[in-house]
Specification:
With 188 residues, this protein is α+β, with helices and mostly antiparallel strands. It folds into two domains: 4-76, MutS, DNA mismatch repair protein, domain I (3-Layer(aba) Sandwich); 80-184, Trna Endonuclease, Chain: A, domain 1. It has helices spanning 23-28, 43-51, 62-76, 80-92, 137-149; strands at residues 4-9, 12-16, 33-35, 38-40, 55-57, 95-99, 108-113, 122-130, 153-159, 165-173, 180-184. Strands 6-7-8-9-10-11 form a six-stranded mixed β-sheet. A five-stranded mixed β-sheet has the order 3-4-2-1-5, with helices on one face. The protein is globular. 32% of the residues are buried.
Length: 188
């Protein structure tokens, strides 16, 4: 049975604290943003919780809700499905994952397994890339600069057309050349 009850509020999926006495668990595992009376969930977080049966929306089918969330969110972010693939992979491997806001192209901050993100340090930041698409060196350089500001390792999650994911640690980029130094990482 689902532990959390989600609701739509002002066009967002939220968890109302008064109706969910264990809401602190979600925050400690990296889900949502605490906004006083409720916790706002990113579409990726809501989809994951619904798919895993950890949450429900009263009186509605999880399958239909996931489809609706995906449909609405893809209109805003064309790469949401690719990001969802990486998010699911990281969560399935047992990592706590926090979605990074306003630091594009970085997407996720990843913590050790069983970490409490309210007190523990993250181990790296993730930039998700489609294998079939090229990425701009300036975007990669920006991601590396942001990671260094956060004092974190930058990892690329490269997802191919079959949904397979390979993780690469990024050591450096050359801003004015087409050069990239990658090492396949076994950090997972």
């Amino acid at each position: 049975m689902a532990r959390f009850l989600l609701e739509y509020l002002k066009g967002r999926l939220v968890l109302v604290k008064d109706k969910n006495p264990m809401w602190r668990i979600l925050l400690a595992e990296g889900y949502g943003e605490d906004l006083g009376e409720y916790v706002v969930l990113h579409p990726l977080e809501a989809i994951y919780l619904l798919m895993k049966g950890k949450a429900m929306i009263y009186g509605k089918s999880e399958k239909d809700i996931v489809k609706n969330i995906l449909r609405e969110s893809i209109q805003k972010d064309q790469e949401l499905v690719i990001k969802l693939g990486a998010y699911l992979d990281l969560r399935e491997r047992g990592f706590s994952v926090k979605i990074i806001k306003n630091k594009e192209p970085l997407i996720f901050e990843v913590f050790n397994r069983q970490a409490d993100i309210t007190i523990d340090e993250s181990r790296c930041v993730i930039m998700v890339v489609q294998a079939e698409k090229s990425i701009e060196i300036k975007d990669l350089d920006k991601a590396l600069s942001e990671a260094k500001k956060m004092n974190k390792m930058l990892v690329l999650a490269i997802i191919d057309q079959d949904g397979d994911i390979v993780y690469y640690k990024v050591d450096s980029t050359l801003r004015f050349g087409v050069s990239l130094r990658l090492r396949k990482t076994h950090w997972i």
